[in-house]
Write a structure and sequence with these properties.
2 strands, mainly alpha, about 70% helix, about 325 residues, globular
Length: about 325
Amino acid sequence: MNIPSLATQVAWLKSQWNLNKLFLLLFLIVASLSWNYAFFKLLVWVVIAFLVSLIPRRFIFWLLAVGGLGESLLAVTQFIRQKSLGLQFLGESILEPLNLTIAKTFLNPGLLLRAYGTFPHPNILAAFLILSLISCYYFFFRYSGKSWQYLWLVMIFINWLGLLVTFSRVGWAIAILMSLIFLLFSRDFINKKNWWRLTAVIIVSVIVLAVSFSWAVIPRLQIETTNFTIQERLTDYQVALEKIKEKPLLGSGLVLAMGERPIHNLYLLIAVELGLIGLLLFLMFIGSFYWQGFANWERGVTFILLASLLLYGFSDHFLWTLRPGMGMLWLIIGLSL
C-alpha cells in the first residue's frame, strides 16, 4: 500500500483548512448584507473562535471539566434549597418558586424548581454539562493508570447528577447518545480495562440516579401532545416556514433574534434570518470539519462536543440568540479549527 508523503499530507490539510475558511467567509458575506449590530456581534464571535483555535485543546477540555464540576455542585444546591444562592454577581438568575417565569418541572401534585447554575435557563446549563461530561471522559482515559484517575470518575457522577436536576429531557437524551458515541469512538484508542470501567460507571450512574429520582424523572418523561410548550413550538415552526417562503434565498436579515421571541430551532432561525443560502453555507462550514476527518483522538473528542451542540440546536435557540449559548458554539468551533 502506498503511504502518502508528509508533504502530501500537509498539502491536504492546508486544502481542508482553506475549505473551512471559504465556507465561513461566504457565510459571513451573506450575514453582512444586514450590516447591523447583529452582524458585528456575530463577527466578534468568529474572531473569538479563531483566537480559541490557538489554544491547546487539552486546556479547553480542562476548563470545561472544572467548570462543569462547579456548575453541577451549584445546580444540586439550588435544587435542594429550591431557590437561588445569592450569586447574582456570577450570573446566577434570581430563582423563586412563586415566580411564574422560572422553569419548573411538574409533579403529581406540585411543582419542582429546575436548576439553573449560573446560566439563564436550565437547558443551557444542560448543554454546558454535556460538554463537561465528555471532557471528563477524555481526562479519565488521558490519565489512565494514575492514582487520581478515580477523581475523574467522581466528577463524572457529579456531572450526571447536575444534568439530572436541570430536568432537560433533550439534555438527558443527548448526554446518553454522546456517551455511547464516545465509548464506541474510543474503543480503539484506550486500554480495554479502562474502557469497561468507564462504561460501567456511566451505566451505574444513569441507573442509580434514574431510580433514586424516579419520583421526579418519570413525570418529566410523560409528554403529552397537548402540552402548551409543545403546541407553542409547533406554532413557531409554522410561522418560521411561512417567513422562509416569503424570503427563501437571503432571508429577512440577521437579528440574532434580539428583541423577538425566538424560534426554538437553530436551523430554522438561520434560514429565517439568512435564508436557505445562509443555512446551506453554515451547514457546509460545519460539515467541512467532519469531512476532513480527525487526525488524532483529541480532534475526534472535539467533534463529539460539536455534535452534541448541533443536536441541541434542533430543539432550542440559545446557540444563536444568547451569549452563553453563542459562546459555547463558537468555542467548540474554535477547537474544531
